[in-house]
């Protein structure tokens, strides 16, 4: 191996040993820099005779080119390696499953409430909303259930640490029935002129405006088992007018149940019962004629003709205003509609259960 080949070889070795770009530039200076070995060889030519200069110069130039090529290659190799390290560090694992955004949906009980509202709206009922923290007067007394009346023990109520003007604590409403009197008060205020005109007309020719409303919402009782939850839903209904009878209750509620369950041969039974705010009172049972529940009587609502004392508390004349009320359980309707046998499932918030209704 001649002297120039040895030089090329040692340049290659030095470049290969450079692990970083800065090391490589230092190695380059040793061979190609101003005081580098190639430059030295060039200078050494000055002493040669002219005829040798030519061939020696060409040979040195070839060696220089070979060294430059080795340098460029090593630079590229270092840059490639650096890029590879960077890519490795920033690598995305595209084989991971993506995070999908699942479509949301309504809770099954919300679906029932929407259904109830749609059906009663189509029958001309207003839909009203009211407070869940209620005064003793609205929850009980206005509904003909005064303090110390034994009928109060029908409901095991939650009380809150706040007393009303009567000194009695507010309660978490145990039913939606207070909405009967609340809504009547609001409605009479809103249509004051019409109610006053009817009240002031001794002939009875000026018709009394009707009150026709449902009030769905949350209710609370100290109660918890497979069919009772401390928080549950009710939907109150009220229709008062000059001529609204128990027969209308039967028609309206039968219509509602058949529409709700999409079953024309559904049979209803009105079973005598007691509620302080109605007289007479009835529990409403339904019976499916087909399907898994066929033949069984299932209780779905309490109902009755609104008690005169309740009409009085609304600020209306019970001689003129007559009608019916009912209170039903949307949770129970949901259980019946979907064949669910444990009410608590609805309120556990387990998506494996809830997503089945979408
Ligand atoms: N409030 C009653 C309850 O929670 C249900 C009820 C019965 C409501 C008869 C009514 C009614 O409006 O007329 O048990």
Topology:
Layout (H helix, E strand, L loop, with lengths): L2 H15 L3 H12 L4 H8 L5 H40 L18 H15 L3 E2 L5 E2 L1 H4 L18 E6 L5 E4 L5 H13 L1 H9 L10 E10 L10 E11 L4 H15 L6 E9 L2 E10 L9 E10 L1 H6 L8 E7 L1 H9 L12 H4 L4
Parallel strand pairs: 1-5
Antiparallel strand pairs: 2-4, 3-4, 5-6, 6-10, 7-8, 8-9, 9-10
Helix pairs in contact: 1-2, 1-4, 2-4, 5-11, 7-8
3,4-dihydroxyphenylalanine binds next to strand 9 and strand 10.
Shape: rod-shaped
What series of H and E elements makes up the topology? HHHHHEEHEEHHEEHEEEHEHH
Radius of gyration over alpha carbons? Answer: 45 Å
**CATH topology descriptor of the largest domain:** BirA Bifunctional Protein, domain 2
Amount of helix = 40-55%
Low-confidence stretches: none
Q: Which distinct ligands sit in these coordinates? A: 3,4-dihydroxyphenylalanine
Mean pLDDT: 93
Q: Measure the end-to-end span.
A: 84 Å
Beta-strand share of residues: 15-25%
- In order across it, which strands form the biggest sheet? 1-5-6-10-9-8-7
- Counting DSSP H or I runs of 4 or more residues, the number of helices is 12
Characterize the largest beta sheet: strand count, sense, and whether it forms a barrel.
7 strands, mixed
Q: In the CATH classification, which architecture of the largest domain applies?
A: 2-Layer Sandwich
User: How many discrete structural domains?
Assistant: 2
Number of strands: 10
């Amino acid at each position: 191996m001649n002297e120039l080949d040895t030089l090329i070889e040692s340049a290659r070795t030095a470049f290969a040993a450079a692990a970083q770009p800065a090391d490589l530039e230092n190695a380059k200076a040793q061979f190609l820099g101003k005081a580098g070995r190639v430059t030295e060889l060039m200078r050494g030519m000055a002493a040669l005779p002219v005829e040798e200069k030519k061939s020696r110069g060409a040979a040195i130039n070839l060696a220089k080119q070979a060294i430059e090529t080795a340098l460029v290659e090593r630079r590229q190799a270092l840059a490639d390696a650096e890029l590879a390290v960077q890519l490795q560090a920033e690598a995305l694992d595209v084989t991971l499953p993506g995070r999908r955004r699942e479509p949301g949906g309504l809770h099954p009980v919300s679906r029932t409430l929407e259904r109830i509202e749609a059906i009663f709206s189509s029958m001309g009922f207003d839909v009203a909303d009211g407070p869940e923290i209620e005064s003793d007067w609205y929850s009980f007394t206005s509904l003909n259930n005064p303090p110390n009346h034994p009928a109060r023990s029908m409901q095991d109520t939650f009380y809150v640490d706040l007393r009303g003007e009567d000194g009695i604590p507010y309660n978490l409403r145990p039913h939606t029935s207070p909405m009967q009197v609340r809504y009547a008060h609001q409605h009479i205020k809103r249509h004051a002129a019409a109610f006053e005109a009817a009240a002031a007309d001794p002939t009875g020719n000026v018709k009394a405006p009707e009150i026709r409303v449902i009030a769905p919402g949350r209710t609370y009782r100290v109660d918890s088992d497979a069919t009772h939850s401390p928080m549950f839903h009710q939907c109150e209904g009220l229709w008062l007018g000059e001529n609204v009878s128990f027969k209308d209750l039967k028609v309206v509620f039968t219509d509602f149940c058949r529409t709700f369950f999409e079953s024309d041969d559904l049979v209803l039974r009105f079973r005598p019962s007691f509620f302080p705010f109605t007289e007479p009172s009835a529990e409403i049972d339904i019976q499916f004629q087909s399907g898994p529940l066929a033949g069984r009587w299932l209780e779905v609502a309490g109902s009755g003709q609104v008690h005169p004392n309740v009409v009085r508390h609304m600020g209306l004349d019970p001689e003129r205003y007559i009608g019916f009320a009912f209170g039903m359980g949307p949770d129970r309707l949901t259980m019946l509609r979907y064949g669910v046998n444990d009410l608590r499932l609805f309120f556990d918030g387990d998506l494996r259960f809830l997503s089945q209704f979408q």
